[in-house]
Amino acid sequence: MKRILFVILCSATFSSAQAAVLEIANSSAISFSNYDGQPLAVTGAQNTGSWGSLLATTAGIFTATYLGNESGYVNNFSFGMGNGSLSESDSVGASTSATVEAGTVAFSFSDSAGLGHTFSNGDQQQSPFGFAILNGQTNQYGTFDYLLGFNDSYASDADYDDFVVGVKFASMTPVPELQTYAMLLAGLGLFGLSARRRKDDFLN
Question: Nearest to residue 32, comparing CAs of 113, 183, 133, 124?
């Protein structure tokens, strides 16, 4: 009976928790050169990555940390609906976070070249303008799921170091589903029934 109760409780626990991850949709491998400047000093050398968009598997907290730039334009990172931003005037290591729903994470990069120079997560990549998804890593500013290297609209290079952020994602505390409560109640009921039978056997 104890074993059955243990299985029920474990099943209820696992059904109420979901693994929260960032996935890359429409991934396309790329390689590039000349990644240099401040990002190189902070993140180490980068020469491969992928185009694509970042999707959250559940609702959670998405955090972006500014890791430097090497650009002539003034570039920025921002969440949708004015939920936080990073710019080249920020100190390296500055972070901003936003609560996001499951699906395509709402963020964008922009440069100072003129109106309309914004590239949003989920947009169709048009080299050289856009961002590359690079391998995440741990450095003095944190541990990241991915690095995002923005390449602004300056057309003479595509090195994805014009504005670099590290991103990580964490789920919010999951709310148990109705079936989870039902399984917990069933397990407690079985436990109570077992205890009552043992008491009756002892008295008899």
Answer: 133
